Amino acid sequence: MTAEEVANDGNSIPMEGEDITPKKDGGVLKLVKKEGTGTELPMTGDKVFVHYVGTLLDGTQFDSSRDRGEKFSFELGKGQVIKAWDIGVATMRIGEICQLFCKPEYAYGAAGSPPKIPPNSTLIFQVELFEFHGEDITDEEDGGIVRRIITKGEGYTKPNEGASVDVHLEGQYEGRVFDDRDLKFEVGDGENLDLPPGVEKALQAMEQGEESLFTIKPKYGFGNTGYAKFNIPPGATLQYKIKLTAFEKAKESWEMNTCEKLEQSTIVKEKGTQYFKDGKYKQAAVQYKRIVSWLEHESSLQGEDEEKAKALRLAAHLNLSMCYLKLHDPNPALENCDKALELSANNEKALFRRGEALFVMKEFERAKDDFQRVIQLYPSNKAAKSQVVLCQKHIKEQHEKDKRLYANMFQKFAERDAKKEAEQAKKEPDSAMEIEENGAQEQTAA
Amino acid sequence: MALEQFSDVVQRCQAVQDEKFSPADFDLFQTAGKTCIEQGDSAQVLSIIVDERNKDIVRCMGWNLLEPIVKVLLSKEDRNLPHCHAILTHLLQTCSPKELLVGLLEQVEEADSDTIPEAIILLLKPLQTVLLKLGVRKASSVGMALSTLLAQVAQLPVPLSKEQEEDDVFGLCRCCTELLLFIRPFVEEVKENLNNNRGFSRNDELRGEILKFCMKSLSEPLLEVQLKDPDALEKSPLRDFASEILVILSSIGESLPDLLCHSVLRKREVPGFMEEEVRYPKESLASLAHLLFVKHIAMERFPAVLSPVFLLQCNMEYIELLLSRTEESRVQKGLELYEKTLVRVEDGSLPVDLLDLKTFFSVPQNLVKVMTLCPVQNLRTKGLSVFQLSIDKFNTEAKYKFFRCMLRTSEHAGVEGYIIKNIKTQIDSALRPGYGNEWFLGKHLLPLLHQVLCLPQGPETDLLHNLDRIMESLNLLRYLLIRDKEWQNETGVWSELYRMEENFLKPLRTGLNMSKAHYEAELKSAKENKRSSGTEAKAPTCTVTVGNESLPNMTPEMQLQVLQSALYTFDLMESVLARIEEIAEARGRV
């Protein structure tokens, strides 16, 4: 389609360019204004950085990243931007400047985008591509696992930990394929199947049917020890090509009625307990969490069912707190104890485990309070007694430390206090020794 | 007396070397000074503290006089105002900024709700001066000041009407305006740092404090405030405050789209990931979303290339949060945000996969609560219209799945009735030539119909309680039998009619007969009671409570009316049922 073919009522920008829509319906026309320098095109899922200026047909500028002074970035091909952009930017090279001419069907359609874009608007963008790179899928965003999508998957859900997955994977190191397998397993079990942690992280970022190439740094690969079985040396950066053929979606809570939720919860609880006994705390936690998510907001229960749900939730929170303690993750352990105590105010296990969590968090005062509550309510609990002693020891140590710290912080006040204490000491000769010591200590620290 | 004491202690202290004043001197300086100022001797106090010989004394102890001075300044006691102003100015020049900061913040905290605006407006400028004196190491002090100030401002009542905002009786508007002036130099400093460093370091502490302030302001007071549109109120200090907060956010390197998409783009739920939640509280982000999409504030800074479905996904997080609350202001904002975000989406375009997202399940659940339980009439009505809007945006398959899930989970006859009505609309549209689809005809439709056309507790089902649902079900079945001819059977209803008769029509018939008999008997005995008790009939026969509040007692007349109207309802149900049976019986004879 060229400028002559399209009715062009008095606008300042001629409609011209190459039709780049897959349907060839003329919905997105591209005109290269300046050739790019790069050789590679961005891939689906890549994070791309652009500057752009958008105008309406009558020449009104409605948006400009240049005016805002910051580049706009998005993940390509994931429907984050209007269709014309996902199609258009995918054809660009680094350094390229092009004009995209976008029909409403590929932009904001009949609804427009209030307040700036009226309904049924054709939009014209001038886009410059600056850079793109594979998507970093680590939580820390440390570039440890980078994904390039070969084939995009479908849907909005991804496998969670504990989900059962069907995959084909191919591991490469320096051009040598060291692993090529079809596998069916539960996410979290990878270690037993010679998979590095990065592969399991990668899986949890994938959609059904997706095929991607992951570059995995040693930290998420086989680390500084390497892996003899595959002949991988220490500190190796790996490449895995993974295709997620299928995964079992857990039935979502809203597809179940109350009865089903209670039934499923009982089943899942058994499953969790089995994992726990096998020492698979992460997987166990996944199961217990499902109970919480199913029953937490179930307000319509009555009578026997209500009791049953309450008991299940209590058990789930108690077991979760145990799992997290085993995993040395005191924050969620604490949260779960709190939840359990909401359900059962004086629960022995909940109090004890909260004490343990607080202990790990070095909150010894509060830990001690919990253990003492346990002793008060359940005098036969010997473990709590020894915990209290342990807490007291730590509190004392911490106290000494704090004193030195505060002495530094409030130099002036400490000095003044020292003077006061010195004066008092004169009045109270009995306790003079002790106070003198304190005063002296503070002054030296200051 | 106090004046003598004051000049005594100052004189005594003149002799002290190296600022080693005793605690007793501190105490006396403070109490005597305070009394002097309270008694109106501020002119004398001024002359003492400006005395060059007393410089060291004032530097060390002067900040103790802030309290009485601020009291005088706030009371606007004419005679002493100029002296106290002069003392304050002198203290600000002389004393250590750290101690002044503590003293000034104490005064901000002391203010009670009547004096908050005056105190804040009086103290902001001195606070700013003191903070700027702290130089590069002021970040945490600025943070402390901002959080103290905001905590006080948040206590002020929020203006509701346009007039209230114009009058600003409680001073919220003035405080907000002043706060913006207060924060300006600090924002400028952060901007300069950003420009010098080309790109920002997340560790710029001052930047962090300003971010915290903006986030806090978004939730309190801004989430409480219903901003007026420019055509309703041309000059609105609160709207200016809101837009300035968003401008500050983007100028300190927090891009608005990144903030909005924050929770969707974060890879996945990180359990116990406290820091992010503290840095970017979801409630503040919800307020941001509302300002952008409902009030169109700072929209010129928001990119116009994001897709409507993606924006919906982002905003669903905030809609979920707002609708889960019970405060009217939150619920209303949630509904507005949902509406405005949905309107951007094309009808019938949302794919079924979206329903896998947690928010697309919890938002309708919350919406049902609003529609059925919210005490405010217009929010319930609005809730219903937004609920319908959300249904309209789903594509056919998504509608199908949505209806099935809602029927399973809503547990409210009214909502179920509403869903059934929607099912009828969908079937009607699918039966039009050229609009046929696989979800609301034939194979897929039947399980949905069976879900609708049944009585959950058989003949014992409470017909009155389930009235809405049953009536809509009957209407649907009648419609199907009339609209879809038996020889065409596009919906499949004719081949499954025997099951519907078994599961729905027969138990309903039995239930109707039982209920009618029961209510007729009740009516009869009520009438007899009334007749026999004669004049005492005015005595209440039963009490009704709603939400622990007793309604006016039910008189025998009212009881009769209730029973009678129940019987009318059964008649209505029966007539539709009879019509259906009639059509069904005629089957095969055509």
Order of helices and strands of chain B: HHHHHHHHHHHHHHHHHHHHHHHHHHEEH
Strand coverage percent of chain A: 15-25%
Rough outline of chain B: elongated
CATH topological fold name of the largest domain in chain A: Serine Threonine Protein Phosphatase 5, Tetratricopeptide repeat
The arrangement of helices and strands of chain A along the chain is EEEEHEHEEEEEEHEEHHHHHHHHH
Task: Count the DSSP helices of chain A.
Answer: 12
Biggest interface, which chains? A-B, 51 and 41 residues
Number of domains of chain A: 3
Number of helices of chain B: 27
Q: What global shape of chain A is seen?
A: globular
Which percent bin holds the helix content of chain A?
A: 25-40%
- What would CATH call the architecture of the largest domain in chain A? Alpha Horseshoe
* Secondary-structure class of chain A: alpha+beta
- Helix- and strand-based class of chain B? mainly alpha
The assembly state of the depicted protein chains is heterodimer
Mean pLDDT of chain A: 85
Radius of gyration from the alpha-carbon trace of chain A, in angstroms: 32 Å
GO biological process, one term (chain A): regulation of autophagosome maturation
Main location (chain A): cytoplasm
Enzyme class (chain A): isomerase
Protein name (chain A): peptidylprolyl isomerase
Descriptive report:
Chain A folds into 3 domains: 18-133, Roll (Chitinase A, domain 3); 145-248, Chitinase A, domain 3 (Roll), CATH 3.10.50; 258-393, Tetratricopeptide repeat domain (Serine Threonine Protein Phosphatase 5, Tetratricopeptide repeat, Alpha Horseshoe). Chain A has 12 helices and 13 strands. Chain A has helices at residues 65-68, 83-89, 197-203, 258-277, 281-295, 303-326, 330-343, 348-360, 364-377, 382-409, 411-427, 432-445; strands spanning 18-19, 28-34, 47-56, 61-64, 72-75, 97-102, 123-133, 135-136, 145-151, 164-173, 176-186, 211-216, 238-247. In chain A, strands 1, 2, 3, 4, 5, 6 and 7 form a 7-stranded antiparallel beta sheet that branches. A 6-stranded antiparallel beta sheet of chain A has the order 8-9-12-13-10-11, covered by helices on one side. Chain A starts with 17 loop residues before the first strand and ends with a helix. The model of chain A is unreliable at 1-11 and 428-446 (pLDDT under 50). Chain B contains 27 helices and 2 strands. Chain B has helices at residues 2-14, 23-38, 42-50, 55-61, 66-75, 81-94, 97-110, 116-133, 139-153, 162-167, 172-197, 205-219, 237-251, 256-260, 262-265, 274-279, 282-293, 308-323, 328-343, 358-373, 377-393, 396-409, 413-431, 442-452, 467-483, 497-533, 556-585, and strands at 545-546, 549-550. Chain B has a two-stranded antiparallel ribbon with strand order 1-2. The longest helix of chain B has 37 residues, at 497-533. Chain B is elongated, with a radius of gyration of 35 Å. Chain B starts with a helix and ends in a 5-residue tail after the last helix. Residues 267-273 of chain B have low confidence and may be disordered. At the A-B interface, helix 7 and helix 11 of A face helix 18, helix 20 and helix 22 of B.
